[in-house]
């Protein structure tokens, strides 16, 4: 197709992943309120249902004027508003739960950050979990960064491109899919410099 572009992944099997998870303090205590978890679960189920149902029409997600993830789809829009209100009630718990030893808790908090209304803080926290040991946590972190890519500075983009390219070494679909989505979003920033360490992406 004229004017189209593509990203190609070349797998190099003898590379070892150097992005090991750093040792850090984590808590085994669940402090995220049950109502927050239930709301997130219902949001995810509704989102998955809409994505799997072609007749439901496009969900058309976007970042609204209050700087949180929103949807044109009416039911998902209501979830976005509810999650925005929910996270505002529990801000003091967010930083503690990002350091949770429980992967589901880390994933839930990163998903909540989509509705924080503070893109810079959400990006800063999500970036620290791009190399998390759990694939679902990595997936949520990469997805958030792709959604809020317009808030990412050019300087930060250079580093995030390297992290996304390194994550392509993981063989799970979500790792490679979300890494490529983020790479695609970041490459639309016209002032980016050539990537020096993206050895496993040939474009």
Plain-language structure description:
By secondary structure, the protein is mostly helical. Helix content is 51%, strand content 5%. It contains eight helices and four strands. Strands 1-4 form a two-stranded antiparallel ribbon. Strand 2 (61-63) and strand 3 (69-71) form a beta hairpin. Helix 1 runs antiparallel to helix 2 (74-89), helix 6 (135-147) packs parallel to helix 8 and helix 7 (154-167) runs antiparallel to helix 8 (173-187). The longest helix has 18 residues, at 34-51. The chain starts with 7 loop residues before the first strand and ends with a strand. Residues 11-22 and 191-203 have low confidence and may be disordered.
Summarize this, please?
With 203 residues, the protein is mainly α. The protein is built from eight helices and four strands; from the N terminus they run E-H-E-E-H-H-H-H-H-H-H-E. Helices cover 51% and strands 5% of the residues.
